[in-house]
Write a structure and sequence with these properties.
flat; alpha/beta
Length: about 575
């Protein structure tokens, strides 16, 4: 209809077609990054232009389009959307820079040759219509920031942040670059050699995309999975039913991709793996697991039914992860298992949320989640390699059965005492860890957070999980473990103090990175009352000890440690009257 299939053409000739390019919602949002990506990204895009030999063709790859049956003169971008989006951002920034350049003879000549008005009409707008539409969830932001320049807001989702980052990157680079070089780059991108293939319907698009992208390209597991699922319903649907089945999978993935931009604590493949752990039979990698499940189903209609059900449940799991993420900032019963062991806790929490939603916050579940936290905390102090069976519990949990929660609670109670596989004394392992002389590692940061909250007066503001995880504040507010008597003093410590006291729990404190940085290696007595008189109750407790004793030495460390140990043994149900800290 619009393009000649497999035709070798250029970016400019593609955009000179009288069509609009649109990214459908079931495709992922913009994912190229300025920094931190192992895949080809924005910096590499510009580096390719800088290194391109003037006598060689510049290749920008293959593009797959589908005719939009509901919108005339529109092509849906099925493959190549990241490159096409970057090209549009590139020209938007270039046009703005050229329009702002001084009209020196050289610059004027180059600008006349490039003709910013022609570039604008080719790549951004023509006849009052935008040439390019990104995914629906980012459309307003993209239009305002890139196409219309009516707003310079930074993004509030990961894809919008990437769009803003690419915009800032190109804008800054273009400001630093001479006009002749800008002309060379523009020529390279406009003349970039591409191949295109256009299909008329979803069935053709599905088959081509599946074969092209399930052959080792650098896609995420979720992207590969989508190709497999869509291709399976195409292969196995009855005649004239393929479109409805494909659309079901696409609609699910449109919602999934929207949620991936909202979720902060997990990436898309982690959510996928947690879902497969909770719902599928095998323990393979997610993609292989799904392929095996489909292969086991013998009739074609059964395969289609399974794929549609799996797609819906996977969508629900992304929704559930975001809902749990919203809850955990202010509810320790949800946050604690994730903080202590997220990889093993997410599957069971996803499954619990599926059946009970925010009912997890009710007293009915408080003991179950509390017992999970007990087991996970104590597991840190058992020997390395001690099994965690929470993923297996998630896989077999059936919330519709009346006894499922009670059965889960019973298993967790046992795990908190003798470990998940038995044969351990979890309480003794915790007591041994507490009474040693080296607690300078992560589980004790968690312990000191809980101890801090225990010291706060009734009614005082508690440090919530959002504070501990530093979900909303600058990195300088991140909590960490620090030494009261510093690690590197001006005058060296006696060897006994260094071995028995320096990394001892009584000499460790819960403190923000900024406080830690300002403290440096100053002895605790020299930091002054103002430093210790902070909003943290544990800091004020240290101040009171220093004021009373006039020093901070072994005796003070042992006394403080005893308080913390008493709290920990009671808090994690491992009390033993014989456990006393001595000199």
């Amino acid at each position: 209809m619009f393009l000649n299939n497999a035709e070798k053409r250029t970016i400019r000739s593609l955009f000179e077609e009288r069509v609009q390019f649109s990214i459908p919602s079931y495709q992922r949002a913009y994912s190229w990054e300025v920094d931190g990506s192992v895949r080809k990204h924005v910096k590499q895009f510009l580096l390719d232009l800088e290194e391109q030999h003037p006598d060689k063709d510049y290749y920008l790859g293959h593009f797959l389009f589908e005719e939009d049956q509901g919108c005339p003169n529109t092509l849906l971008v099925i493959d190549g959307q990241q490159r096409l989006t970057t090209v549009v951002i590139f020209f938007s920034c270039l046009i703005r820079e050229l329009k702002g350049r001084s009209t020196t003879d050289e610059a004027a000549g180059v600008i006349i040759e490039l003709n910013p008005q022609r570039l604008d009409e080719t790549y951004l707008r023509r006849d009052g219509k935008r040439r390019f539409k990104t995914v629906k969830s980012d459309a307003v932001f993209f239009n305002d920031r890139i196409l219309d320049r009516t707003s310079l807001k930074s993004g509030d989702t990961r894809s919008r942040k990437r769009i803003a980052d690419a915009d800032m990157f190109f804008t800054q680079k273009f400001k630093e670059t001479d006009t002749a070089t800008l002309l060379r780059w523009a020529r390279l991108v406009e003349g970039a050699v591409i191949t295109t293939f256009q299909v008329r319907d979803k069935v053709q698009a599905t088959q081509i995309f599946s074969f092209q992208n399930d052959r080792g390209k650098a896609l995420t597991e979720l992207e590969k999975l989508k190709a497999v699922l869509v291709y399976q319903v195409y292969l196995n649907s009855a005649e004239n039913e393929e479109i409805e089945a494909i659309e079901h999978v696409e609609e699910c993935f449109a919602e999934i991709y929207a949620k991936t931009e909202e979720i902060n604590l997990l990436n898309e493949d982690q959510v996928l793996n947690h879902h497969c752990t909770a719902y599928l039979k095998r323990w393979d990698k997610a993609l292989e697991n799904v392929k095996h499940e489909i292969k086991e189903i013998k009739d074609r209609a059964g395969k289609v039914k399974w794929v549609k059900k799996f797609s819906s449940e996977l969508r629900d799991s992304f929704v559930h992860v975001k809902a749990l993420e919203n809850l955990l900032g202010h509810h320790e019963c949800i946050a604690d298992p994730i903080i202590l062991d997220g990889p093993n806790s997410w599957p069971i929490l996803i499954k619990l949320y599926k059946f009970f939603g925010e009912g997890l916050l009710s007293p009915k579940f408080s003991k179950c989640l509390r017992t999970m936290e007990l087991a996970l905390f104590k597991l840190h102090f058992l020997h390395r390699g001690c099994a965690n069976d929470l993923p297996a519990y998630a896989n077999t949990f059936n919330g519709e059965a009346l006894g499922s929660v009670a059965e889960l609670e019973e298993k967790l109670e046992q795990a908190s005492k003798i470990s998940f596989r038995g044969g351990q004394n979890c309480d003794q392992a915790l007591r041994d860890a507490l009474t040693g002389h080296n607690q300078y590692h992560n589980p004790f940061g968690y312990l000191l957070w809980k101890y801090e909250n225990s010291l706060r007066a009734h009614g005082d503001h508690q440090l919530m999980p959002s504070n501990f995880l530093n979900l909303h504040a600058p990195r300088t507010h991140q909590q960490s473990i620090d030494h009261i008597a510093p690690q590197e003093p001006v005058i060296a410590y006696p060897e006994e103090f260094r071995s028995d006291c320096l990394n001892d729990l009584g000499n460790l404190v819960y403190m923000t990175r900024s406080m830690n940085s300002s403290k440096r290696n100053t002895p605790p007595l020299d930091m002054g009352d103002a430093f210790w008189d902070s909003t943290c109750a544990s800091h004020r407790e240290i101040k009171a000890t220093i004021v009373t004793s006039g020093k901070w030495g072994k005796d003070e460390i042992v006394a403080r440690k005893q308080k913390i140990v008493n709290f920990a043994l009671a808090r994690w149900d491992a009390a033993n009257p014989d456990v006393t800290i001595t000199n």
